[in-house]
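Please fill in the sequence for the structure shown.

STRUCTURE ENCODING:
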C-alpha cells in the first residue's frame, strides 16, 4: 500500500493525520486503527506525502484541530454575506477604501477591487460613478 493510499483510507474512515515538527499526529477512529501497522511500516513515506500536501504544516490555533486538509483545485468560488448595522459608517469607510483602490493601494482598500467597492456602496444605497483611471 502506498503512503497516499494509507492517508486516504485513514481519512475515509474518519481519521486524520497531521505533521507536528518531525512527528505525525494521528487522530484515528476505531475503524482506522487497523491501519496503524501499515502506517508505522511506511512512516517516512507518509510523512513526505503529508508534507507534499502543504496543509498539515499550517499552524493551527490553540483549541483547533485539523480534521481534513483536502484543498479544492483553483479557482474556488467563495460567497460572502455581510450584514451592515451602521450604513452611514459603512458607506464612509467604503468610500475611503474606494479612494485607496483608485490610488492603487490595495492593502489600504482591504484588497477590494474598485468594482467590488462600488457594488458594496450600491447595496447600502450609495450610487457612485468612477471616472476612467489613468494606466
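FILLED IN BY: designer on duty
SEQUENCE:
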Amino acid at each position: 500500500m502506498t503512503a497516499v493510499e494509507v492517508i486516504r483510507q485513514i481519512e475515509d474512515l474518519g481519521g486524520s493525520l497531521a505533521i507536528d515538527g518531525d512527528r505525525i499526529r494521528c487522530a484515528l477512529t476505531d475503524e482506522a486503527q487497523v491501519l496503524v501497522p501499515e502506517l508505522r511500516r511506511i512512516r517516512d513515506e507518509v510523512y513526505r506525502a503529508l508534507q507534499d500536501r502543504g496543509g498539515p504544516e499550517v499552524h493551527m490555533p490553540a483549541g483547533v484541530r485539523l480534521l481534513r486538509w483536502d484543498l479544492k483545485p483553483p479557482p474556488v468560488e467563495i460567497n460572502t454575506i455581510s450584514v451592515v448595522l451602521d450604513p452611514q459608517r459603512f458607506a464612509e469607510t467604503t468610500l475611503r477604501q474606494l479612494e485607496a483602490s483608485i490610488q492603487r493601494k490595495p492593502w489600504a482598500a482591504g484588497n477590494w477591487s474598485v468594482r467590488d467597492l462600488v457594488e458594496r456602496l450600491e447595496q447600502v444605497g450609495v450610487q457612485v460613478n468612477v471616472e476612467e483611471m489613468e494606466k
